[in-house]
Amino acid sequence: MLKRLLTLMLVFVICFGVFSGCGATAPAETTAPALTEPAEEAKVLKVLTLGHSLAVDSNHMINLVAATEGIGDYEEILIGTLYYSGCKLSQHVSFIKSGEAAYNLYLSSTATPDKKPQILDSVTMAQALTFEYWDIIVMMGNPWEVDDAGAFENGNIQFIQKFVNEHKLSPTAIFAWHMPWAAPMDEALLNLYPHSPNSHYNNAVAYGLNKSAHFDAMTRCVEQYILKDETFQFVIPTGTAIQNAWSSYMEEKDLHRDYFHATDYGRAMTSYVWYCKLMGIEKLEEIKLDAIPKEFLKSTEDKTQDRVITEAEKAVMLESVNNALANPYKMTQSQYTEKP
Fold this sequence. Notes:
Number of strands: 9
CATH architecture: 3-Layer(aba) Sandwich
Strand order of the largest sheet: 4-3-2-1-5-6-7
Structural class: alpha/beta
Mean pLDDT: 87
Order of helices and strands: HEHHEHEEHEHHEHHHEHHHEEH
Helix content: 40-55%
Shape: globular
Largest sheet: 7 strands, mixed
Number of domains: 1
Number of helices: 14
Low-confidence stretches: 1-40
Strand content: 5-15%
Radius of gyration: 26 Å
């Protein structure tokens, strides 16, 4: 009797397992969806920058500039900026290793040209990389870091690129390099932001308070390392445009709002450099942006009105951007040396 009971129990277990297995629903796939064929997807250019506040300055109104100037055959341009204050390449490496959610992710789109960037807080680099199917990954370093050969020889760039390649969703995504501007070294500006110790001031003193010397150091490093690195497809020379404008009648306070960051005018200028490089424009015919909406303003004291860009300012901006596109690693003297 016991033997028969055990046999019946065994049959029950087997049958129950078979039927429950046949009727079970397979677990949902957790992998990312397959890439859409280019012919089927919307023509959206998606760009992610791994940077800091100077990338935020440059991208703050690129959606406004691009929408104003036109985006060709694209239906939309989406710009993401992964931000950590003053981020060095070595800090990116540290955050990658720790998985720390240290960044903010700024998002701008030509679909909403009148909106300033949306900000997502507490983001890891891996989350940013998998947020979208980015087409271009832009890298940069701290300006007081990428003026020295050591930043390009210690392997940090390659470490970051390896992580990006392991996590990016689009296998065809390419790398670009953002070369920001040299530090303003007007002592009046430096004294507005006293630090103890003032590391920025100490770095400036190392260059003899010579902005051109800092600019030259950064451009030498780009020419010596980035241009010889086949993993980088192009360079965005915002620093050259700012340097070109500085050779005009404009003063550092016209281009910088503090010890490093750009004024609203400077932000518009650097956004134009980004726009031209992303659109493949070698020479810009005109500046169509007449004013910076008050919603975008950062440094203007009166934020109740739009910041008008005068015709004289447009002329300097157009010249500075075009000269940076033509000669990205050398300052080109402006023809506008007399203040209107």
